[in-house]
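I can't quite decide. Please look over this sequence plus structure tokens:

:::
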Amino acid sequence: MRPDYKNWMPKGMVLGTAAGAAACLLLAALFGCTGILESGALKTALTAVFLVLGILVGLAALWMALLYRAFSYNGKRKMSRQVIKGIAEHVKLPEGGVGLDVGCGSGALAIACAKRNPQARFVGIDRWGKEYASYNKPLCEANARAEGVRNTSFRQGDALHLDFPDETLDAVVSNYVYHNIPSRDRQAILLETLRVLKKGGTFALHDIFSRAKYGDMESFVQKLRAMGYERVELIDTTQNLFMSPSEAKWMALSGSALLVGKK
């Protein structure tokens, strides 16, 4: 049995966008090449509108298909696998320790961290919203079984209000989650995640930490250091760490970085 970690670009979204492009082009052909409408301004306008829409939506579908190919865990590029492995390498838990993966999706990161720390256990939480309907708790549990990992558990949770007391966990991790949460203050979401860390606990949070989404992250790093956090770093992952600069641009992942440190 092989794990099924799905794809960060949902297949249904790719196929749905491709179908939309095909429908627009079909309508353009119907209006432009048949007698369904008499010649005139309306026929010309509708043909042009649906032709342009078809081309634009088709380009979007092509971009999504390329993302799907690059993100595949079992394809040639396997970027998702590379990112998960790279984050997990920053996590080392003590004997009997507990780690948390915020926004665990299909369980990939929680399972990778649990495999690296068999003496501890990892909890994965997610809201498993409709936009990622193929991700769910049974899928995470099935993937853990497929990987032979027994020191994981999964449950529904809210990244904005973690159901854990202050300073109770030994590590927190996350991957490409927070930028998807509508918020005017994503730095506050990061602080909510770090709230649950014990003194001495470690964190490895990967996201698109652009100024537009997060504000001044360098100042945030300095703020954490002033609060007593140790070895806080913001590591750019677009400089051939997880991806090349060109990949980051065409994938719309510019600003991707790994926030790591110790409380």
User: Anything to note?
Assistant: Residues 79-262 form a domain with the Rossmann fold fold (CATH 3.40.50.150). The longest helix spans residues 41-71.
